[in-house]
């Protein structure tokens, strides 16, 4: 028997106070929900816009019980909440995405095993743990050694020339559990966002193409400049992954495009993000329903909104903390005038008080008649910010 939808003025709880939580809270507030954020940092971006901010660690049992008392459903805005915290909450109320799905996505070893066991394509990889052999099983050439947990935006990763260098990289990473992934010759990188309700209704957005710099997402363009057949296969693959996870909420499926043995494009699953995703920020400005509104709809079990684009093309460029410093390293506020003067552009700042190099402080989007023009304008506007 399906559960009745959770409707306003019910309370939506969010574990995590970053920018993803901020946008989810804002979307829920506009829809008429009350919101509560649990995050250990006073002044966290989501906490300052929520109805209530519980300032406590994610494993603080009294705070978790208070969150459960206040809320009708709890979701997460990052993939690394303690599993014990999710289990505690799940005994008291609905938690979406399900703790089991988050547990898979927050550990690269579990994620790779889940994908392979369920028949989803992944690149060659090995596992390196304290008890595993130093010799490679699948990886025979250049590779990336990644910590199984907590690494993101290029953190917790080391490139190696071959299996003989894995041991040294593993030592450098602290001898924690790692995956060793073959370096692939990529044609491009894609991401697909899928929203799914507890009763299995799904929807997705146009496929996005992503460009990274130093392991951090730099620019996203949508619709991805790929043929329709590949886009259809990418959406089908991502939707199947969400179904296999019995997922609830917005799931980001990051994909590699490589050449198959026959020369045609082949899709491989790179990573899963059990939450709205940086590559979906464009939906705030160029889509009928943003990924954040859809997250609220999905976890509350209401109808899912339409995902059609409202512009021919859109590009998003991340704004990292480096922009807040001049060439000598002295603090310098970016000049926002050009972005704010452009009617086809939107500026988003996350309310983080301490800019640091490589820290995501905001993003901008630009719309145009095609992805090349949109991407060019987004990059041009970002360049104009430096003093």
How would you describe what is shown here?
The protein has 387 residues and is α+β, with helices and mostly antiparallel strands. 27% of the residues lie in helices and 28% in strands. It is built from eleven helices and 18 strands. The strands form three sheets. Strands 10, 11, 12, 13, 14, 15, 16, 17 and 18 form a nine-stranded antiparallel sheet that branches. It has a five-stranded parallel sheet with strand order 3-2-1-4-5, with helices on both faces. Strands 6-9-7-8 form a four-stranded antiparallel sheet, with helices on one face. Strand 10 and strand 11 form a beta hairpin. Helix 1 crosses helix 9 (291-300). The longest helix is centred in the middle third of the chain and has 17 residues, at 228-244. The protein starts with 10 loop residues before the first strand and ends with a helix. The relative contact order is 0.12.
Silhouette: globular
Order of helices and strands: EHEEHEHEHHEEEHEEEEEHEEHHEHEEH
Query: What Rg, in angstroms, do the CA atoms define?
Result: 21 Å
Strand content: 25-35%
Low-confidence blocks of residues: none
Share of residues in helices: 25-40%
C-alpha end-to-end distance: 59 Å
Structural class comes to: alpha+beta
List how many beta strands DSSP finds: 18
Main beta-sheet strand count, sense and barrel state: 9 strands, antiparallel
Task: Let me know the average pLDDT.
Answer: 94
Question: Any key phrases for this structure?
Answer:
387 residues; alpha+beta; nine-stranded antiparallel sheet; five-stranded parallel sheet; 27% helix; 28% strand; globular
